[in-house]
């Protein structure tokens, strides 16, 4: 449909109406890709430890083409600090692969993360006493990227010696 509309636009006089029809087709043209929904982050205390249990849960849904092809995705779950200027990565919760499959796929990853990594706004501590304790704002980002095989490379051992004409 989109290709037909574009050809009609190019073959006819460029009228405002034709242009609007083409733009409307582009806007409503379906782009199918895997979707990530219901991303939930929880951070729980673990008694007697200076680490917290960080859990990220979410759901994946693949399109029929990805399912049929068995497309493999690079799946990355990152804990990020939410700041006005720029958001920074605080910890990688998971870095793995997932193969497209039919239906809704529920995912859950947990990792123990140090309080220092979670303290993204940096508390002020003097002589072991917290003087200024700032609120930290954290969120999880889940990324799916279609896996693309890359070439491999390896180097041999280094051989030393005299190889010039004077040897």
UniProtKB/TrEMBL annotation:
Source superkingdom: Bacteria
Name assigned to this protein: Late embryogenesis abundant protein LEA-2 subgroup domain-containing protein
Organism, as annotated: Spirosoma montaniterrae
């Amino acid at each position: 449909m989109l290709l037909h509309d574009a050809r009609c636009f190019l073959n006819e006089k460029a009228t405002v109406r034709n242009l609007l029809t083409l733009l409307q087709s582009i806007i409503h043209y379906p782009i199918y890709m895997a979707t990530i929904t219901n991303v939930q982050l929880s951070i729980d205390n673990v008694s007697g430890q200076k680490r917290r249990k960080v859990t990220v849960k979410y759901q994946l849904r693949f399109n029929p083409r990805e399912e049929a092809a068995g497309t493999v995705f690079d799946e990355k779950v990152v804990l990020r600090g939410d700041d006005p200027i720029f958001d920074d990565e605080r910890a990688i919760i998971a870095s793995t692969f997932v193969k497209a499959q039919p239906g809704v796929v529920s995912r859950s990853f947990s990792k123990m993360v140090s309080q220092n990594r979670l303290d993204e706004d940096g508390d002020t501590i003097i002589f072991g006493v917290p003087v200024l304790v700032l609120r930290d704002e954290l969120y999880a980002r889940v990324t799916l990227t279609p896996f693309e095989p890359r070439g491999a490379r390896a180097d041999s051992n280094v051989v030393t010696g005299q190889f010039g004409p004077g040897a």
